[in-house]
Amino acid sequence: MFASFLRRRPSVDVAAGLREAGALRDQGRLREAESRLEAILEARPKEFEALKMLGDTRLGLGKASEAVPCYEAALSHGGSGDAQTLVNLGQALVAAGRAEEAVAVFDRALRLRSDVAQIYVARANALYGLQRHEEALTAYAEVLQRWPGHLDAGTNLGNALHAAGRSGEAVAQYDRVLAAMPTHVAAAYNRGTVLRALGRREEAVEALRGVLAVVPNHLSALHNLALILGELKRHAEAAECYRRLLAVEPRHPFAAGNLVHALAQNCDWTGRDALTAHIVDAVERGEHPCVPFVLMTLTDDAAAQLACAANHVASLHPARPNPLWTGERYEHDRIRVAYLSADFRDHAVAFLVAGLFEKHDRKHVEVTAISFGAGAKTPMRARIEAACDRFVDVGALSDGDAARRIRELEIDVAVDLMGHTGDARPDILAHRPAPIQVNYLGYPGTTGAPYIDYILADRFLIPERLKDRYSEQVVYLPDTFQVNDDRRAISTIPLSREDVGLPRDAFVFCCFSASYKIAPSVFDVWMRLLARVPGSVLWLVGGDATLERNLRREAASRGADAARLVFMRHRPYAEYLAHFRLADLFLDTLPFNAGTTASDALWAGLPVLTAAGEAFAARMAGSLLLAAGLPDFVADSLADYEDAALRLARDPARLAKARAQLSREPAKLPLFDTRRFACHVESAYRTMCERSRRGDAPGAFIVKPIRE
To answer: Which of 21, 53, 258, 663 could form a disulfide with 36 if both were Cys (CB 3.0 to 4.6 A apart)?
Structure first.
């Protein structure tokens, strides 16, 4: 174990050497202390104090795996009865990822010293780290029974209660700690994060502001406060938190991306170019400046998006070492398909997939929904539940337990509808519960995850020349990647332009995409179009005073009349669809196209004009337009897009022809033929299963179109 120490050198003054090493360690000069201790042990390999101190020093250097043999040697050479050395060994084992062994070591320490609270707490912490939550709860309760004033144990008990799904009790436990010590930072911070998890966001904001009042540069509190403010749509306040965070730690994970995204929510483009350049450079260096979703709003560089996603997964959501599916061959009469999502509610993904679930051929496919989102009983939620053979709510389960539930169901094909979007739980599929795992629909890009086998696309969406920029194998569907629901109802309540603040006879450009998708370069084009089409207006989604004020300011700075921007308020879905019929042309965004919004416009009969980029998100609308029979509405660049928009605004006959084409039995267009899409995707699932049952690795393939 310490072979290099076996050669004896002339005697050394051990006491003096230990004093020198201790002084170096106290000064933070850990590497020098390590070298001094190694020199002592080369001469005296069984020196207990040197072995113990070397373990402490290496643990301080983050070299836990190297600290473990130091402590073990110390215990073998005179320290077997030293409880503190056992505690330190246990902590090193935990840090080295060997928490199971650490629990046994802490038990040995307790047999020596049953009167030391630190040992009980360390053991409980190890159990908590192993997700043995009930045992951890019992262990923390024992500490508090013996030492009622142990506030750290009280805080950790709150953490364990939250991890065990007892979040309300966790908040009450944090409150008890804070009643004893109002400035206990860990309890206050954890209380804020649990309140957020409970959906009590306003209370969470106050809790985290309380933490920052005590520790102004508490990085985790700043980060979580910013996230919560974003969820509350208080984007300007969120941006200020990210600025404070970056001022303290310029390389804080995801903060730069979150800052630019928070600003973009209000179309505040201050510093956007510099932030984007910084983010792209950092991604290329293997850092984590933003989450993958944010990057696709800033650039259509497919290689950069793959690098960002792969870095993200490797760091936060790696494949688990013991996959749940280990090669078993299922022999089911029907393919068992599970769709995983938090969005089985009034959400864009649900609006698209509801029809697919209903149209699946139940003779050949069994549909299971794996839901981990809020369970509000809306009509859409009820429709999806009714459309499935099985609806399984795993919201209260851990990722591992949810994965085990999928494995128990012997799912053949697990389809992730979330990717790296909000409320996603990629760690479920990281446990590999199914033989085939697919990225589809909810996330417009590559996941970068080695445990996701396929991505459903089409030949326009992912050109074959670019398929190596996706971690998944590409499955090419015949018409378009996007399923649509041919039952989407459009309100029949009479609606006029005057009802929504539009001029009666103006040419109405519109874009109902989310505000963060509006890039300054696209807004430049829009303002030039307003200047070149007399009397025209641009109709956008509004409802937020800051957003509307910023866009009017940006319009004025480009020489446009800010009054020619008209804003739509939120409407129920059927009424929202009816609003598209009041516009003349939908103008798409780049580098992040409209997806569901574009198909909404086309379903309502409104032509969409897009510019296609390189990555998935920059080619979505083009795919939809090809499947709707409108290839002339797909431009190759923003310059061509601007020219095409001007031509269309001056050619009402061409727009009328396109509108008529969309409105004439839209459900018969390949874009909106839900049953046709279901046949194609079922063919894809069959091919995947056939390959898997033969033992073949996942590979790209083309799905043949069904015969008309």
So the answer is: 21
